[in-house]
């Protein structure tokens, strides 16, 4: 082939290629370029958490946070890289220049923006300047997309000898259109598009839940031979390969979106709330068991896999037994399937439960030969008719009467039986009666009754002489008439709560319920006691929809009225009935005087907090006097009790009097708590400051630096944000304003403040309370009011700046 002819054809093909590039670039965004390599600061590898930024014309167009010391991104298919996305105005004057920044300081290196390029670029700051700072871009592959009518063509200019297609081939051939980085094999081996199958986007992720950092592998399941992929992971990041691996660094629930397309069609799949990521500091119950199946007796080792910092464990193994250690061992002796539950709690009262249904399978074994003579069970029933009174009133029509024998299931067609007003059953050969059969003769029979106004409770049998019985013996073939009564207080003649012994110890005998009513106050920081113990601003204030739960350690006392949902603000429990609309405590084999604790969750709270029980008096003027407090009350079956619950710090410190004390009388107020900016927890090194207009509040711990991710101040180490001023300069309850300065911003942003135990909304200030250690949460954003530090200083009189104020 003549050299001139080759050159001419090559020039013609190149002209055609660039013609298509120009057609594509009109109105279409430029492909991003990506970078990876090493990062050094003063010659040493940059630490994990270092922030890299890429800017075009001083506008940030990409960011990357180091997850490995001294290295960012990588050349692999699944490696994340520093992606630079140019906007239309960035390229108005031709090729744009990219500058790189390391923790806010400009790196020595810079390079030109080249769409579609993936480049290895080592970045550094400090030390001597490298020999080359304006790094040229290697362009082995440049991706361009052109569109003519409904078709698109992708071209590639390679820095090697290639066979150049003719103009007719470029227009007629259908080539893959892709925005993948050029180092990927898909770019070098384009495949023809198949138009035989309809395009439907679909994908899966594995895993879809876990704790931070959570790495999820996404797999494209789309039909129709897509050639382009656009992923949106829901956390502000994207990718453009078929099967990406993405790491979620923040807790939350994320919606994932995949759009696929080729030359002929496109499709989108959106999965709402698909990925769930939890914080490792949040309590989350989980466990494993080994082995999970076998023949009896089977010894199983349970292992706690919970996250957070649990201090208590409560296991139920499904066979009526349990344990309270972290990693128990248990032996199953009876064939069957067993559901295992684990409930954990930490020192703050936060709890979490994990239940695994039918986790343990115990295979059947040969039936052992009986070693005792079976007891003959009569088949002839004993029948009962009679009257029923509930708390002095006849039972309503439609109520129920049920006979029980502990250790036996004797329910049937006529047990339980419905009641007419005040009576159950009717004498006569063919009349319906309460029937008991299928138990040994002389077994002790109990009676339980309920109607629309009262829950199921155990009844006494009233004798003709006025005495009471708890049970009657089973007499097969007899018809017995009984008078059943339910009393608010048990009679003196018999024990209040007999527990019938059964061969297996406690066989699920329910306790007599205890009803509880009262009120709930949730502290909001305005409460205080005067010198006579009178509590001010202490009225009940829990919201409608709030919840109260009674707990007894080691026992399940949950039920229809526990937890109790507030239907009135402040107060719970009403009606003349002993049990109606009241918090009720009842459980299996519940011992007398077991300690009941109370847990409160106001409407909108994510979890319960333990409440105090206040011993108080309320006079005719509704003045509350507090005498003492405790966390628990004893369980007393059959009784009703009124309690006053208090959630949050108790008001024990009276306000400081306002006469003229010495200037040093004000003790500092210390603050600590959680803090976030733009919806994300503050990072280590961010700053928090407290101010009061016209007053100098600056001191060594105001402002204070964040030392723990998402939290300012340390109440244990006493390194807290302090408001420390002379007495004359500020009054009690004067408003304090808070400011947040993230490391990458030059302004201080005004923060909103909220007491986490208060039900009140976020506020602009918080009242000054000398001598207190106050837990308040802060939040701000780049849309909040902002000021330079010097502007804040100008609003403060007699402010003395420290010598190292430049770090603020």
UniProtKB/TrEMBL annotation:
Domain PKD: where? 199-282, 283-367
UniProt cross-references to SUPFAM superfamilies, sorted A to Z: PKD domain
Q: Entry's SMART domains?
A: PKD (SM00089)
Q: Which PROSITE patterns does the record associate with it?
A: PKD
**One matching Pfam family:** PKD_4
Superkingdom in the source lineage: Archaea
Question: What is this protein's record name?
Answer: PKD domain-containing protein
In which organism is this protein found? Methanospirillum purgamenti
Q: What broad taxonomic lineage does this protein's source fall under?
A: Archaea, Methanobacteriati, Methanobacteriota, Stenosarchaea group, Methanomicrobia
